[in-house]
């Protein structure tokens, strides 16, 4: 017989990790509770099975109570990610490959030393557009063989995982490297011309991950710097809902978190994974059950999906995302904020800007333009 006290502790922990992310705070240890929802479902289901099969508790009523709690945990947690399965209708319709642009997004990991192999893999992908993250001087040098294929090159090369570059075969105009919240974290804004002559507004992001240790201040970042960057991007998208958009990168946030869902509602953008699959990208070296979808592609409502898959850059801790997108429809994106979403978005921006200023490093790493 499993003692009631042990069962109470286990169920209590499930309830705590389920309720904690509902708190409106940016503390990193709370926001990280957004990540393991699938794992919590598995633990709650297993615990429920044990309660049903074994002689636990002090009677039928107590067992029914534990079963009910486990069932509610499963239903609540699963409700966050069920849309990222084939059980759900797709948000972005399927499209043929005509006039589609092939986009590859990958965090290559600045500590990765298997650069020659990765360059060969990127060459084989033959994407029209590359967004490469954590590009330092060593990576910039290693990527030189690809320069002839990608005449349009923009971005920032920086140490310590803070570099990001956009390389394109397609014509690029109006490219800007902005630092929306933190001077250490660039975002890339550009206009890309598709094969049929349309213009797609491209945004590449890599916001600060919650929990990242800042040595100069001897503390860890909370989530507000990340959240503020995503809200600022959503605000800009919402100001031009009639345009075509592609927002992508390593968000350092899962697809089902409150912040990412708020980003979707405020921007009106669609997630091509909805109705197709999870496409978990991090950590690539961990077993499947311990991976999370933190690398994202969001598109305007009129975009169709001709292809969507992951690829594994050798030596990286991320899977990359490879997608072919057709921006042929004239359907417009419509932001769909709920309740106090606008006020919350504004608060996140204000808090993030304050936190970024307070956590700015004393000696930031050097940066240079993409070669």
UniProtKB/TrEMBL annotation:
Query: What residue intervals traverse the membrane?
Result: 7-30, 36-54, 66-88
- Region of interest called Disordered, as start-end residue ranges on this chain: 327-371
Keywords noted in UniProt: Endonuclease, Exonuclease, Hydrolase, Membrane, Nuclease, Transmembrane, Transmembrane helix
Superkingdom: Bacteria
Q: Which residues form the Endonuclease/exonuclease/phosphatase domain?
A: 106-318
Protein name in UniProt: Endonuclease/Exonuclease/phosphatase family protein
Cited InterPro entries: Endo/exonu/phosph_ase_sf, Endo/exonuclease/phosphatase
Residue spans of biased composition, Acidic residues class: 338-357
Q: Name one GO molecular function term.
A: endonuclease activity
């Amino acid at each position: 017989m499993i003692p009631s006290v042990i069962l109470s502790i286990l169920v209590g922990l499930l309830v705590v990790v389920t309720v904690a992310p509902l708190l409106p705070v940016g503390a990193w240890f709370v926001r990280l509770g957004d990540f393991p929802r699938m794992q919590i479902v598995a633990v709650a289901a297993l615990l429920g099975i044990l309660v049903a099969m074994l002689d636990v508790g002090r009677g039928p009523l107590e067992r029914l109570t534990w079963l009910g709690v486990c069932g509610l945990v499963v239903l609540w947690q699963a409700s966050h990610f069920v849309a990222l399965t084939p059980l759900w209708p797709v948000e972005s319709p399927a499209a043929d490959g005509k006039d589609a642009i092939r986009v590859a997004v990958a965090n290559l990991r600045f500590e990765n030393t298997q650069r020659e192999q990765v360059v060969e893999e990127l060459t084989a992908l033959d994407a029209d557009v590359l967004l490469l993250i954590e590009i330092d001087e060593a990576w910039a040098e290693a990527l030189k063989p690809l320069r002839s294929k990608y005449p349009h090159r923009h971005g920032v090369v920086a140490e310590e995982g803070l570099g990001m570059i956009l390389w394109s075969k397609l014509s690029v105009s109006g490219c800007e490297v902005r630092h929306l919240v933190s001077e250490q974290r660039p975002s890339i804004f550009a206009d890309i011309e598709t094969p049929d002559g349309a213009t797609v507004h491209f945004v590449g992001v890599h916001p600060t991950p919650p929990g990242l240790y800042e040595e100069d201040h001897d503390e860890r970042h909370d989530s507000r710097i990340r959240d503020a960057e995503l809200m600022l991007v959503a605000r800009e998208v919402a100001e031009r809902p009639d345009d075509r958009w592609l927002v992508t990168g390593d968000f350092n946030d899962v697809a089902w978190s409150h912040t990412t869902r708020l980003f979707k509602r405020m921007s009106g953008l669609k997630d091509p994974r909805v109705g197709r699959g999870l496409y978990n990208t991090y950590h690539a070296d961990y077993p499947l059950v311990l991976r999370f979808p933190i690398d994202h592609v969001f598109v305007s409502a009129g975009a169709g999906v001709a292809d969507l898959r992951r690829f594994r850059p050798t030596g990286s801790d991320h899977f990359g995302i490879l997608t072919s997108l057709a921006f042929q429809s004239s359907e417009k994106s419509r932001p769909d904020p709920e309740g106090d979403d606008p006020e919350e978005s504004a608060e996140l921006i204000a808090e993030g800007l304050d936190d970024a200023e307070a956590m700015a490093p004393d000696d930031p790493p050097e940066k240079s333009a993409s070669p």
